[in-house]
Amino acid sequence: MVSSAKQQHNNILLAILGFVAVVIIVALIGFFTLGRDPEVMQGQVEVSEYRVSSKVPGRILEIRVKEGDYVKAGDTLVILDAPEVRAKMEQARGAEEAASALELKARNGARNEQIQGAYQVYQQAKAGLEIAEKSYKRIQRLFDEGVMSAQKRDEVFAQYKAMEAQCKAAKSQYDMAVNGARQEDKLAAQAQVNRAKGAVNEVTSYIHETVQVAQMEGEVSTVYPKVGELVGTGSPIMTISMLDDMWGTFNVREDQLGGMNVGTEFTAFVPAFNKDIRMKVYYMKDQGSYAVWKATKANGQYDLKTFEVKARPVNKVEGLRPGMSLVVK
To answer: What DSSP character marks residue 287?
Structure first.
């Protein structure tokens, strides 16, 4: 009976040991299988974009493209109506015409009629001077002979000098008419013309802004306003995606970088195509303390920062679109 109890005790001990062994084996299997799943980094495809906007405010008159259209550089996208700009152009052209007329007047000088009139006035002054000079000489001889008073001689001399000054003034007016405007006046008139032309060129550039054309080829991804709506200066009208410039962006914790550097190539899985593509890293930068990070100081280790990693496909992938997911194990 003692032997039977001892045998039963051994059986219970073997059962416990077997149970413990099974638990240990299951734990080891779980550790080496479930605990060793690879880390997964998920990113997405991004594309370079530029926004179409105008320097002048206006009303949308016509939109010649729609979302999804592929445009080339120089294609007309939007036409704006800006009556204020047209009014400014009329003002600028009027100012240019006025400045050109003044410059032409300064360059050509006085008219022939003005020159002829100044010449006649000069000739009249010369004739008066000759008569005044003869009268003065005659009175001077009479004064020398003692038959003319000094008072009369002084009056005639004053008239002679007045006519002499008048003749000089008429001569200067005639010379001015012949020579035309001063060089400084001509330069000032030319400067006014250049200023007016600059204003016309400025308004012309604003008029060109009423017709928006594509600067680079790409796909119209978003059109913001509708026909008839007002848009302000610099307001975005549409966004164009340059599909030839695509890359993938990943947020990678630094313990998952695995020695990744600029120039490193890796394989990424594209769920949309159910295939792998090769990508090459061209940009890495930490996202700063404000970004997502993992605190490990609680267990005596260190904080882990997150890096933004950008990579381009090594080979062109047909059908790759912005927003598609990229998975890296």
So the answer is: -
- Give the separation between CA 138 and CA 300, rounded to whole angstroms: 130
Task: Judge contact between 240 and 52, C-beta under 8 A.
Answer: yes
Q: What is the dihedral of CA 240, 241, 243, 248, to 10 degrees?
A: 170
For the cut 80, the answer to whether the pLDDT of residue 180 exceeds it is no
Contact between 237 and 53 (Cβ < 8 Å): yes
The model carries a pTM of 0.58
Rounded to an integer, what distance in angstroms lies between the CA atom of residue 21 and that of residue 16? 9
Task: Dump strand ranges (E) for the chain.
Answer: 41-53, 58-63, 70-71, 76-81, 211-213, 218-223, 230-231, 236-253, 265-270, 275-286, 306-313, 325-328
| Cβ atoms 119, 171 nearer than 8 A | no
Phi and psi dihedrals of 317, rounded to 5?
-110, 110
Contacts of 151 (CB under 8 A, 6+ apart): none
Comparing CA positions, the residue from 70, 13, 46, 85 lying closest to residue 218 is 70
Q: What is the pLDDT of residues 244-281, one digit of tens each?
A: 899 999 988 888 887 788 999 999 999 999 999 999 99
Residues paired with residue 212 on neighbouring β-strands, in sequence order: 78
**Exposed e or buried b per residue across 178-205, where buried means at least 16 C-beta atoms within 10 angstroms of its C-beta:** eebbeeeebeebbebbeebeebbeebee
Q: How far apart are CA 109 and CA 10, in angstroms?
A: 135
User: Among 25, 57, 73, 322, which Cα is nearest to 215's?
Assistant: 73
Tell how strand 265-270 and strand 58-63 pair up: unpaired
**Could you give the CA distance from residue 101 to residue 193 in angstroms, rounded to a whole number?**
9
